[in-house]
């Protein structure tokens, strides 16, 4: 078998396209395979924040105490389909075990180590593709409407401080001075210093793909069904009946990564946190920055397509139909935030790839070190995509992977 490429990548989201560009920067010949257009998956519909402060996992002790209501509510920011929970009880159990405070602190430390390097992973790519115009340097805000909510977030906010997140506590009038259009009750805010957001994540990935092509990279419009490997390389078998030989194969298909046979994913408990958005085309000028409303579990972000309300978590099957109440929930919260909003608004459902310990999988497969896993970025894949691309190419080129985070290999699921 002769390798046509050094690296073949499955999935042209932010993670896969960043990997493709980093591979080129390191002098590797790369091919990327995806039946869908670049950046059109979960990346497209995100809340657009470069959330370098988001080291607090969704796992928290409060999930355990509020579990009964989560199983039966459609009106809370986090909902769990109880039939799904029963069917995937091992995943749920592992998720709940990771809600213990000791685990939350340990996960937060690993996420913090990754997030501190996130800008260093993305910025060289932004410069390469000349995408500075898509980035807005404006500190993101979190807002709490109640004392109870703010006090309940104290441990999480302490964790951020310990991880070096620079943030400033604001009172209600400080928040309203920054964002006068907000109408919901405000108790406290946090301003995350030095953060920024992306005006159009899909455009960012499209520009990456164009630059990749200019530099000789190959994009194949087909998904990967399976991969085989030997000592010198890999063969990816594509849905269109063709195959691609490469020295390394990278699984970067987000929430769909387990659909690729032969990649050693049988024991990796990749789950999905479904999330929704509604984007009001007319109202982008209501905000100057993303505002996360903690009690509502959403962000309002003034992105290129309008004012986007994105968030909520639904633990349910990847293939289940959209839950209509979720869109209605976002619209109701949007009205509470800004009063009535007129004009067109789209509704979207997307799939966050999530492991029960909220950490991504970035590293060689246990079946072969020629297959590299790069998925599971849950709520922060847009933020960590660039860095993941750099880490994957560190591995492929035999450099030490930086940052050297210990808990993100797939072998963590093979122990015991
Ligand atoms: C509502 C919501 C808001 C969010 N907000 C933010 C935010 O503000 N900041 C942040 O950092 N993150 C955010 N996220 C998370 C972020 O969007 C994801 O973590 C990230 O987009 C995942 O990127 P990806 O490249 O892994 O996956 P995707 O963008 O889903 O890309 C995966 C690609 O793989 C392709 N594919 C699937 N199967 C195959 C196959 N067999 N072969 C080849 N290709 C395949 C798909 O077509 C797709 O193009 C949010 C997510 C949601 C749902």
Automatic annotation (TrEMBL):
SUPFAM superfamilies: FAD-linked reductases, C-terminal domain, FAD/NAD(P)-binding domain. Keywords: Oxidoreductase. Residues 6-394 form the FAD dependent oxidoreductase domain. Pfam families: DAO. It comes from the Bacteria. The keyword Oxidoreductase applies. GO terms for molecular function: oxidoreductase activity. GO terms for cellular component: cytoplasm. This is D-amino-acid dehydrogenase. It comes from Roseovarius lutimaris.
